[in-house]
Amino acid sequence: ERVGVLKNPDARMAEARAAVDNIRVVGSLQLDAISNRAKLRGVQMHGVDGGVVIVIPSPKALNRILARNVVGLYNHFVTACWPAPVWLIMASITALIGVVVNDDGGSWLRSGPVASYLWDLDERFVGLMGLSSLLPIYFRIAYLAAWCSLALMLVVALLQRLFMRTLLNYRGWMYEKKVSTTTMIWGALLKGFFFGQRSPLTYSFQSALPRLPVPTLKDTITGYLRTVKPLLSASEYAKTEDDAAVFLASGGARKCQAILVLKSWLTGNYVSDWWEKYVYLRSRSSILIGSNYYGLGYAYHIPSSNQTARAAVLLHYYSHFKDMLDSERLTPTTMRGAVPICMRQYERLFCLTREPGRDTDILRHHDSVHVAVQYKGTWWRVDCFTLYKKPLAVAHFKRQLDFIVSAVGSSVAAPSPTSPEANLPALTALNRTRWAEIREDMFLRDGVNRLSLEELETAMFVLHLDERSTGTLGNPDDWSTAGRLSLHGEGNTRWCDKSFNICVYSNGDAAVHAEHSWADAPVIAHAWEWVLCKEVLDEPYTADGKLKEDCTGEMFDKPVRLEWRLGGELGEAVLDAAKFAKEMCDDLDLRVDVHDSNLGGYGKGFCKKQRCGPDAWIQLALQIAYTRDMGELALTYESAAVRIFNEGRTETIRSVSIESKALVDMFDDPKVANEDKIKALRIACDKHQSTSRDASCGRGVDRHLFGLYVAGQAISADVKFIKDALSIPFKLSTSQIPQRQTNLRGEDPKLLSPSGGFGPVSDLGYGVSYMMADDARTFFHVSSKRTCGKTDSKRFMTAIKKALEDIKALFPTEEAKQEAKKP
Predict the structure, then answer these.
(1) Which site in 281, 348, 375, 538 is 20 to 30 Å from 223, CA atoms measured?
(2) Contact in structure between 172 and 182 (CB atoms under 8 Å)
């Protein structure tokens, strides 16, 4: 009997090992996997050792597959008809059929040019099979009327979408401090005509989203020059200006621009596919710290210290989230309740793996209903849905996880921490070409390894029951520990290729580790926020952290252990990878902290009182802190979402500006009055907000420059100026993480999260993510490389806090204001 169905997990170790030795892992695991796929996809045919296996699902399973396909087709039809409801479409079709059938035959409906054309079409197509003469005349009239009315309704729906796209091309609302009459009318049309009719499906708005516009060459080059002027000497800037003028006047630049304009009309987005391919999938560097990122759980509490109970709850809610996505019941995200944003990235949230290639990686999307669970170096497959594709109850998940925890160390020997099996995930932290070579030459040629790897790569996601603890939380040291473990897990516990990993620690704390190529952080953050909010609102735990829900009877499906053959050269490669990954992890310097009003700090509330945008305020504080820390300003990156466009991802906000440099230069000068510094601060904030809005509206610099470079490479144009522009490193890379993306989160302090972070983009600088949690606190994640020698994350964190305090000190206190009013 295979390990996954051992009836007596408490058997003596010798007996258990003897049983395991007799297991035919290849056959049982492969047949089990093929059987599960057949239940989802239909008839399966696979080659196995010694022959071919054909698995035909049961009639019940076939009916369920048919039902899911019908639901999928219905959702596509609903999306095509939206915003008109299906009942209206069907009623219109029925009414038109009735009118045409009951017509006396003398009107244009039955004998006019349109009717003659339709009869001719019917004779050409249906008549080819000789069926026209066999069908009753009124039946032919009815189905022709049905097709015509359906086509008419779809044309009307298409016109409505074109009208909506026209409305969505208006972006004046993003630049207004006070809402104009035009914006009020626009908002009323958008809300009343589209949002006021009925609840849309997840992807209802996709075909109505506008295309990402291609900026003009002149605007992009002018914008680029303005962003580098504060960072270059006079002679360097003069040379850059001359090079820009030469490039603008070249025929190659115009050809590259024409290619981008043509691509913007022929594809969903002129740059997103290139960005994914060349920036992410073609990169050969390790993705563990250099690309992937993490998100932490609650900041000030852990709802349950029972590890398997907490993990079971998270599995349950993530399964529900997947179910909502599959049935398109997840409400589309909007800005201000009126402007829909692109939901395309959600399609690849689950069941995705980044498959390594020797030259380029490939994103493989699968259809599965299981997760891969990692515990003490062992790997297991755990099913998450019933036969009717409904998420399992929390208690059922807990029983499966408890089975794994009790089996490892008793009926299943836990691998030694220094063994290849315990360090297997380190392979995904290697250089991508090296990992691809090992995968192709060693993994895929072994039947056992190939099957186990397939189960892992096709899983919905990876769950790691981590035996380490993140402490009690609520303090910077524990947050920093949680951040480091969640980002890299010491290099040998994060399967970097999966779309995301859920990490549940021994103290019950939880975090998410995500791969970056398939989507951006807000998508992962949205799902994570939904799961955490549901966990708090539904209160699944008792006071002592146990589950309120109990499970009796047989387990739905026992976990299946994934077996590996990691001897010889493959085992050595795994251990070499673990050593390489550990060196990278040791080089990372990560610090997580909070600027809290209870500890002398403040949040976005104070910024708003001073009529400054909170994000701009933080960016200026970062520039002041960096200049104090490193002695100079650096090219600064901040991500901006451009998801108001179809297939939009991100654009770069170049935060350093002529206005921000003016503030930084005068900030520590005691001769400059506070009033002048405040004036410069507000001017710099206004400029940053304008730059941010331009980036979100597709008027940024970097994505256009990148697109021009790729187009230039394709036609062998001279794009040296673009290459030089894109080669300047962002020594300060920053990102703001949104706090609320669902309507579930209220003001409950339990739901506060420190958010997440990432590794430094440049080895010579810092990576900073921040989240303005509320009016009283802002969380920061600062990362750098120890081998740089000049950077220090703790020192820079202190510099950030000091800069925020110094900016606040520019403004008179309430007591000083009251004192000044006295006669």
Answers:
(1) 281
(2) yes
581, 433 in Cβ contact below 8 A?
A: no
Nearest alpha carbon to residue 40 among 27, 57, 52, 53: 57
Q: What is the pLDDT of residue 389?
A: 81
DSSP letters of 452-476? HHHHHHTSS-EEEE-S---TT-SSH
| The token pair that represents 204 in the structure block | 């209802």
CA separation for the pair 520, 738 (Å, rounded) = 12
Q: Where are the alpha helices (DSSP H) in 631-748?
A: 658-667, 674-696, 702-715, 720-727
* Three-state SS at 242: helix
In 3D space, the residue among 558, 533, 381 whose CA is nearest the CA of residue 463 turns out to be: 381
- Tokens found for residue 474: 């609520």
365 is an active site residue: no
- The per-residue pLDDT for 109 is 59
**Phi first, then psi: what are they for 770, rounded to 5°?**
-150, 155
Q: Torsion over CA of 680, 686, 691 and 696, rounded to 10 degrees?
A: 150
- 192 to 83, 159, 187, 195, 338: CA distances (angstroms): 11, 17, 8, 6, 10
d(CA 532, CA 313): 10
Question: Does the structure show a pLDDT above 70 at 768?
Answer: yes
pLDDT confidence tier of residue 49, bands split at 50, 70 and 90? low
Which of the 8 DSSP states describes residue 741?
Answer: -
Q: How confident is the model at residue 624 (pLDDT cuts 50, 70, 90)?
A: very high
Please tell me which residue in 488, 513, 516, 595 is annotated as part of the active site. Answer: 516
Q: Mean pLDDT across the stretch 458-484?
A: 94
Residue 13: per-residue pLDDT: 34
Two tokens, residue 275: 């960005």
Task: Give 773 or 541, the one with higher predicted confidence.
Answer: 541
Query: In whole angstroms, what is the distance from residue 699 CA to residue 221 CA?
Result: 11
User: What band does 819 get if pLDDT is binned at 50, 70 and 90?
Assistant: low
How does DSSP classify residue 421? G
Predicted confidence band at 11 (pLDDT cuts at 50, 70, 90)?
very low
Q: CB neighbours (10 Å) of residue 296?
A: 25
- Residue-wise pLDDT tens digits, 519-568: 999 999 999 999 999 998 899 999 888 998 776 655 667 899 999 999 99
Helices (H) and strands (E) in the chain, counts: 27, 20
Q: Are 732 and 276 in contact (CB under 8 A)?
A: no
Q: What does the pLDDT look like over 690-747, one tens digit per residue?
A: 999 999 999 999 999 999 999 999 999 999 999 999 999 999 999 998 777 787 776 6
Confidence band, pLDDT 50/70/90 cuts, at residue 815: low
* SS3 at position 550: coil
Supply angle C-alpha 122, 125, 130, rounded to 5: 90
Query: Cα(96)–Cα(83) distance, rounded to whole angstroms?
Result: 20
Is the CB of residue 461 less than 8 Å from the CB of residue 513?
A: no
Please give the helix or strand (H or E) that residue 22 lies within, else none. Answer: none
Q: Judge residue 502's burial from the number of C-beta atoms within 10 Å of its C-beta, 0-12 exposed, 13-18 middle, 19 or more buried.
A: buried
Integer CA distances (angstroms), 612 to 607, 679, 801, in order: 6, 11, 18
pLDDT at 1 over 50: no
Q: What is the pLDDT of residue 19?
A: 33
Bridge-based pairing state of the strands 339-340 and 334-335? antiparallel
Tokens, residue 205: 């708005």
**CA separation for the pair 562, 425 (Å, rounded):** 14
Written as six digits, the tokens of 364 are: 């493989």
Residue 287 phi/psi, 5-degree rounding, is -100, -5
Q: Give the CA-trace dihedral at 213, 654, 177, 684, to 10 degrees.
A: -150
Residue 674: CB atoms within 10 Å = 12
Quote the DSSP letter at residue 442: I
**Number of neighbouring beta carbons within 10 Å of residue 98:** 12
**Does 814 or 576 have the greater pLDDT score?**
576
Rounded-to-integer distance, Cα 313 and Cα 229, Å: 53
